[in-house]
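Hey, I was hoping to borrow your eyes for a little while. A protein chain has come my way and I'm curious about its shape. Take your time with it, there's no hurry, and the full record follows here:
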Amino acid sequence: MEQTPAGPPSYLLALLQLSDSALPTGAFSHSFGMEMYLERGLITNEADFARWLGEFVAIQLVHNDGLAIRLALEAGPVEDVFRLDAMLAAAALPREIREAGTKMGLRMLDIARQVAPGPELDEYAVRVADGRCAGHPAIAVGLVGRALSIPAPELVAAYLFSTVTSLTQNAIRAIPIGQNAGQRVLRGAHSVVGEAVAAIAALDESEFGAAAPGLEIAQMRHERQRARIFMS
């Protein structure tokens, strides 16, 4: 009997769409503190940026966005997911980072409801609109993962690598380092993201919100930086 070739997982195209670096969430306008490192001369080339990016992923993304996505997938009632929204907002001490999460979260939520419409995303939108939730892209992505039954390692890896890609594109024009250098950084980030996904899988909820003080200070100082390209 002739066998029909197996198609891709049902969630794959939605996941690719939501992790596209060209997704109009406004990520191109945020550096998440990187610009302050540029201003102070601490990031001047490809190697500097790759090192900064690795630390950003391993500490801030792993213990905040990445862990929130995994916990959202594991949560029972959707109210437990909404609690994660409050935790993300509370963990974002720098004002610009907190506002960036809200702005990008609103855009991601709008797109997510088109890509994977469902009652939990609709309820999240209602709560964001009336102020009961702040809104965050990681929560919107987590709710998509719940709706489409996306495995945690794949969902977390896609989200992290999308963030890495956006930051690399911003570094290409801000440092600048050039497109080829950007691709080398992205290739090197494969192992960074892989290690981050493994770390997230092993974390306990009590480890949520861990941060790098130096990075947070740079993020706080950014709003008073004399000349800026990025909003954060």
In short: The two ends are 59 Å apart (CA to CA). The longest helix spans residues 46-74. The chain has a mean pLDDT of 94.
